[in-house]
Recover the amino acids of this structure.
């Protein structure tokens, strides 16, 4: 089960933002762990601590193309008086059987190749004549192209300290060290480390599958012609993108007409691929607010805790909200308002934390900070409502972007922060300190 039953309140109860969020987070449960191949685990949260079974690097190896030598044999070497050493062969990366480097000897060595027995340091090829008997070499040719370079003599023009240009065994991590802590989100560097220590699979909480459905007979898909009274569906695109940004695997269903039966059928059909469902639109008090009509009584009556509760929140934008669970697996569903800004703000405040909770993360919220309010006029806010205004944040200051209207998509596209005005504040003067939710 991914959810417990949400608490209920009277129809006229005005929920605070914190109460609604607390109810969601107390209801949603992290997804059960599964074992995945490394690339399939990208973006997932690690369940168990991973320890290192073998040291990295697993052996001393060269960080340069050059010659493996003994320190004493190149002491005092210079271009005027080079050390002349016998080249006993090549040491390539991946080579199992190694040459032995004795007094007065050198072995050509490639980057990543094991340091051969007897050798104490590596001199870069640029410090030598490359075995050609001429001036300083600029590179090293492969043995197959220049077999004479793997034998004969090499002149070394500079001394080298012990273990110069040598990557020591265990210098990255040692066997028994902790590689990754439980709760780590697996990105490319973490996957690289797991592969480097020989882990082909890993136990993680999977990325949640989120289904996004927008409602409204007035909605038309982008690239289609608009008729009178129609608008393009932006909410389903915004919320699907936001769900992916939060770490989910998101599926956009698109717009469903204002028909309760069609919406109910669509929701039921989508349950098979949903760990979380999000609808937008149809949660207010209008005659065509079909989400409330379709979902208020959805749920198997034999399944205790199923059903969606529709609430009024003391916030602006985003007063009407719905939350609950649906279907035999009690799949959580969040019903958001239809105005684009209301929908997006609601997602950031409620849906994103739910997604991050399903992933098994400890920190599920956007970062917050304090900032100085910039602008030439005070912000006004309705008493008793927590207002979230779009803003642009930089260098400790935040500037309002656009007005308070919940339909201003262009202003939302310019914002990278939400300015929070508390319930008991009706006006904020420029120069005041405000709380800011960082969206970027």
């Amino acid at each position: 089960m991914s959810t417990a039953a949400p608490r209920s309140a009277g129809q006229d109860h005005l929920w605070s933002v914190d109460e609604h969020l607390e109810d969601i987070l107390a209801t949603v449960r992290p997804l059960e762990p599964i074992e995945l191949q490394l690339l399939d685990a990208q973006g997932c949260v690690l369940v168990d601590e991973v320890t290192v079974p073998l040291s990295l690097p697993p052996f001393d190896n060269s960080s340069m193309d050059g010659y493996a030598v003994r320190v004493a044999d190149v002491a005092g070497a210079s271009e005027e008086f080079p050390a002349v050493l016998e080249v006993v062969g090549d040491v390539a990366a991946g080579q199992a059987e190694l040459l032995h480097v004795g007094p007065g000897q050198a072995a050509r060595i490639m980057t990543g190749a094991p340091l051969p027995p007897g050798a104490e340091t590596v001199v870069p090829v640029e410090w030598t004549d490359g075995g050609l008997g001429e001036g300083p070499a600029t590179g090293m040719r492969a043995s197959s192209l220049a077999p004479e370079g793997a034998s004969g003599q090499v002149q070394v023009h500079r001394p080298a300290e012990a273990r110069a240009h040598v990557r020591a065994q265990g210098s990255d991590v040692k066997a028994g060290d902790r590689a990754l802590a439980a709760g780590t989100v697996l990105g490319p560097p973490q996957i690289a480390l797991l592969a480097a220590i020989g882990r082909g699979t890993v136990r993680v909480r999977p990325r949640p599958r989120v289904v996004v459905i927008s409602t409204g007979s007035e909605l038309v898909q982008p690239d289609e012609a608009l008729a009178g009274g129609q608008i393009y569906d932006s909410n389903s695109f915004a919320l699907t993108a936001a769900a992916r940004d939060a770490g989910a695997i998101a599926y956009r269903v698109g717009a469903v007409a204002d028909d309760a039966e069609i919406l109910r059928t669509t929701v039921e059909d989508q349950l098979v691929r949903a760990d979380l469902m999000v609808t937008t639109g149809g949660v207010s008090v209008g005659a065509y607010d079909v989400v409330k009509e379709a979902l208020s009584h959805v749920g198997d009556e034999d399944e205790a805790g199923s059903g969606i509760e529709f609430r009024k929140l003391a916030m602006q934008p985003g007063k009407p909200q719905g939350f609950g669970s649906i279907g035999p697996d009690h799949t959580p569903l969040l019903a958001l308002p239809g105005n684009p800004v209301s929908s997006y703000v609601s997602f950031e405040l409620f849906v994103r934390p739910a997604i991050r909770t399903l992933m098994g993360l400890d920190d599920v919220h956007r970062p917050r900070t304090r900032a100085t309010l910039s602008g030439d006029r005070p912000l006004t806010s309705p008493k008793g409502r927590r207002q979230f205004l779009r803003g642009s944040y930089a260098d400790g200051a935040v500037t309002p972007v656009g007005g308070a209207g919940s339909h201003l998509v262009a202003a939302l596209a310019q914002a990278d922060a939400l300015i929070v005005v508390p319930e008991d504040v009706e006006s904020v003067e420029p120069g005041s300190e405000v709380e800011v939710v960082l969206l970027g």
